[in-house]
Amino acid sequence: xxxxxxxxxxxxxxxxxxxxxxxxxxxxxxxxxxxxxxxxxxxxxxxxxxxxxxxxxxxxxxxxxxxxxxxxxxxxxxxxxxxxxxxxxxxxxxxxxxxxxxxxxxxxxxxxxxxxxxxxxxxxxxxxxxxxxxxxxxxxxxxxxxxxxxxxxxxxxxxxxxxxxxxxxxxxxxxxxxxxxxxxxxxxxxxxxxxxxxxxxxxxxxxxxxxxxxxxxxxxxxxxxxxxxxxxxxxxxxxxxxxxxxxxxxxxxxxxxxxxxxxxxxxxxxxxxxxxxxxxxxxxxxxxxxxxxxxxxxxxxxxxxxxxxxxxxxxxxxxxxxxxxxxxxxxxxxxxxxxxxxxxxxxxxxxxxxxxxxxxxxxxxxxxxxxxxxxxxxxx
Length: 380
Hints:
The radius of gyration is 20 Å and the shape is globular. By secondary structure, the protein is an all-beta fold. A hairpin with a 5-residue loop joins β28 (337-342) and β29. The protein starts with 42 loop residues before the first strand and ends in a 23-residue tail after the last strand. The chain contains 1 helix and 30 strands.
């Protein structure tokens, strides 16, 4: 264990190798010069404690940094956090904890890896008290923190102008970090201008909750660019842009509940302004809609895909039939097949009613990088 103690106006940043540490190991701080870049900022912040990472400083993260109930993590503009250690290195905000990422469009916060390869570290995990349909509460598949509850407007803080790179470390094929994982996060939380780049699993994934997100960029992640399940129903989502490469899977993978497809609350988000670009012309699926999901998506550009819409399971097909699952004003560019459906028995079903075509600019500039991405993103 390494410790830095407060002196004068300097911050103390406690460096520990274990998450279970005493409150003496976690300083309430406001930093002068910041830690030596060789120091590890991994620790557990307890109730009443605040950790502030100072503007334009670099910090290493080789173990987990956990923000417990009643604790606060502030990350000022220009901060760079360098992760090492695979699944042991991640940032997790527990129920009742708060994170405030304060990047700007010219000076974003960057969470990256020492080795610039996918899956080099975990990622950012936020757990809230908003409703999920898996159970009243559940344990997050990564971080082992509790999430879910009945506080729809729960507030886990604010994340603005953040780039998450080379995340997605995996324990096995069924248990993997994403760039940004949102477990039961409430609508009081603000998320905007976030990029997930070159991760080994999904860029963004929602596990229930009511949080919305604006101005998202998902680029070159190995699995899906955007993924939701367990009753996520954020209603104010807008301007999502993704561009795939290599062996990436789908643009969207949307589920309600894998075990009980009619579980409530339903996955039923509203998203306005989407651009999804395939890794290679004539390959991949833009939107996989299954397991009973609902949702309203509008102003959508899909470019280069082998298949635009893939709808599965009786419950999802019923949602198409009653209009509770609809993708409207869709512009298809170089798409081989528009839509296909399969019921629970595996039989082909006509699901063309899932979308309606129309001319629009998607996330802002059609297939081109939108104006709002300039200055803080890369890989576009």
